[in-house]
Amino acid sequence: MHTRRFTRPDDLTDFRCGCASDGDAVTVSPVGELDLATAPLLEAELRRTAGSRELVVDLRRLTFIDSSGVHLLLRWAGDSARRRREFRVIPGAERVQLVLAMTGVLDTLGLDRPHMPV
């Protein structure tokens, strides 16, 4: 697995992406906060997977996601479907899953709904 580290312009947090290949599958693992400043960095990493038949985005190490991150995942899911490329998302931490649930994209991304206390 290789990792690219990016420093956000405001130096508040580091964002990095790990990338691992296994045959025709590539797993991209963003780490840190996925927001307006870092979404282009994840996008660049996803573009590097162009030749793979299967793309997996592993959200388990994200600490935050905003609407730009959600939008990015939706665009890649749609683009992958049009290209007949398998696209999967591994669910993230509860706070990340909650954002995905609140935006109504869990079913589109094929993710389980987070457990919500009654």
Explain this structure.
The chain has helices spanning 39-47, 67-82, 94-102, 106-109; strands at residues 2-7, 14-22, 25-34, 54-58, 62-65, 86-90. The protein is an alpha/beta fold and 118 residues long. It has a single domain, classed as Transcription Regulator spoIIAA. The longest helix is centred in the middle third of the chain and has 16 residues, at 67-82. 25% of the residues are buried. The model has no long low-confidence stretch (mean pLDDT 87).
Q: Quick summary of this structure?
A:
The chain is an alpha/beta fold.
CATH class: Alpha Beta
Helix content: 25-40%
What is the domain total for the residues? 1
Major sheet: 6 strands, mixed
* Strand residue content: 25-35%
- What is the third-level CATH name, the topology? Transcription Regulator spoIIAA
What is the count of helical runs?
A: 4
Large-scale geometry: globular
Distance separating the two termini: 40 Å
How many E strands?
6
Order of helices and strands: EEEHEEHEHH
CATH architecture: 2-Layer Sandwich
CATH superfamily: STAS domain
What is the element layout, followed by pairings?
Blueprint: E1 2-7, E2 14-22, E3 25-34, H1 39-47, E4 54-58, E5 62-65, H2 67-82, E6 86-90, H3 94-102, H4 106-109
Parallel strand pairs: 3-4, 3-5, 4-6
Antiparallel strand pairs: 1-2, 2-3
Write a concise keyword list for the protein shown above.
about 120 residues; Transcription Regulator spoIIAA; six-stranded mixed beta sheet; about 30% helix; about 35% strand
